[in-house]
Amino acid sequence: MPLSISYSSSADTSVIELAGELDASTAGELHEVIEKASARGLGTVEIRMAKVGYMASAGLRSLVFARQKMGEGVEIRVVGANEAVARVIRAAGLDRSVQLIDE
């Protein structure tokens, strides 16, 4: 299933909503949106993943890329990830640099 990405921003938050599969063939699209969000210089980036059914290691690299691109002063929230995706994030230790939030 291809990845669908929507992006919006408000006063202090960028919201990136994903639907589909986050893997090597789709991660580049997410990187482009992360670049766009980082240019806004906002305090919070919310990555909504409730509709992501599968995340490969390229998806983990995308979250690391977001953390590096946004800098330590920006809060990154991964919202609504299903248990399988959240487990991968925790196993990689990324839950120490991004917030996992149930929806």
Search tags:
103 residues, alpha/beta, Transcription Regulator spoIIAA, 3 helices
Description:
The protein is of the alpha/beta class and about 100 residues long. It has a single domain (about 5-100), classed as Transcription Regulator spoIIAA. The chain is built from three helices and five strands. A five-stranded mixed β-sheet has the order 1-2-3-4-5. Helix 2 (about 55-70) links the parallel strand 3 and strand 4. It is globular, with a radius of gyration of 12 Å. It starts with a strand and ends with a strand.
pLDDT averaged residue by residue:
94
Instruction: Please estimate the helix content.
Output: 25-40%
In which order are the strands of the major sheet placed? 1-2-3-4-5
CATH fold-type name: Transcription Regulator spoIIAA
Biggest beta sheet attributes: 5 strands, mixed
Instruction: Domain count, please report it.
Output: 1
Structural class comes to: alpha/beta
> What is the assigned CATH homologous superfamily?
STAS domain
Number of DSSP helical runs: 3
Based on the structure given, which CATH architecture is correct?
2-Layer Sandwich
Order of helices and strands: EEHEHEHE
- What share of residues are in beta strands? 25-35%
Shape: globular
What's the CATH first level?
Alpha Beta
Radius of gyration: 12 Å
> Whole-Å distance between the termini?
23 Å
Poorly predicted regions are: none
Number of E-state strands:
5
